[in-house]
Design a protein that fits this description.
Layout lengths: L7 E2 H9 L1 H9 L9 H18 L14 H8 L4 E10 L15 E11 L2 E8 L9 H13 L5 E8 L4 E8 L3 H21 L22 H4 L2
Parallel strand pairs: 1-3, 4-5
Antiparallel strand pairs: 2-3, 3-4, 5-6
Helix pairs in contact: 1-2, 5-6
């Protein structure tokens, strides 16, 4: 039987790197039903409203919980260039553009907002959670995907915008450095492929163990106390 490889993403790779066993339970066998937290549900609602605000060029009445972001969004709308929102992108292992939910997807992702002005883009990913320990690796992957999907693009100035904390993490990326970006994400993806082939998903003790939903793991506090 041929081995089936799951499409990866920034979030999936980070999950595997934190704990392969949790990745296996959540992403492969799906032993734990996904239950969206109240905070995650709020984040989804806000993202949808901000998307609608951009699509309607500011002619959209934000709800009470999103109204405080109107000034911010007007600033983004004022950026020069064509605006894109919630744009889904994917590539295969040959670094070819493919359908987001298509076959042979290696890695996929989407950005919240981009203003494309000639060969230069401003890209933004809104974050409604904590601004501690920002990881601009997500921006690197989104930029690499954008270079593939927007052939005219040569440079991306990208930002993680923590909209509830008046905080921002910035990074810039260039098409000329695409080989380095691809090499990095392939190297980070290969361990997931190897686990898929060997069916070895070792549990790893980490700082998130006490919040992990995989309670049969030997590192979970409930198992430690039994």
């Amino acid at each position: 039987m041929a081995t089936k490889y799951s499409a990866l993403s920034y979030t999936a790779i980070k999950l595997y790197e934190t704990c392969p066993y949790r990745y296996y339970q959540e992403r492969v066998v799906k032993s734990v039903p996904y239950v969206q937290s109240e905070a995650a549900a709020l984040g989804d609602r806000i993202h949808k409203e901000l998307e609608a605000f951009v699509l309607n060029e500011g002619n959209y009445k934000l709800s009470e919980e999103s109204a405080k972001y109107e000034k911010l969004m007007n600033g983004l709308l004022a950026l020069p260039g064509k605006k894109f929102v919630e744009t889904k992108m994917a590539m295969d292992w040959k670094v070819k553009k493919v359908e987001y939910f298509g076959k042979n997807v290696w890695i996929r992702g989407q950005f919240d907002f981009m203003a494309l002005n000639g060969d230069h883009a401003k890209m933004v990913d809104y974050k409604t959670g904590s601004h501690r320990y920002p990881d601009v690796g997500q921006l690197e992957l989104m930029s690499a995907l954008a270079f593939l999907h927007f052939p005219e693009l040569d440079k991306v100035d990208a930002s993680l915008l923590f909209i509830n904390h008046n905080a921002i993490a910035k990074a810039s990326f260039e098409r000329a450095k695409m080989p380095a970006y691809i090499d990095k994400w392939m190297r980070r993806s290969i361990p997931v492929v190897k686990s898929t082939e060997t069916r070895e998903w070792p549990a790893t003790r980490n700082n998130l163990c006490k919040w992990c939903p995989i309670k049969d793991c030997r590192f979970h506090p409930e198992m430690q106390g039994s």
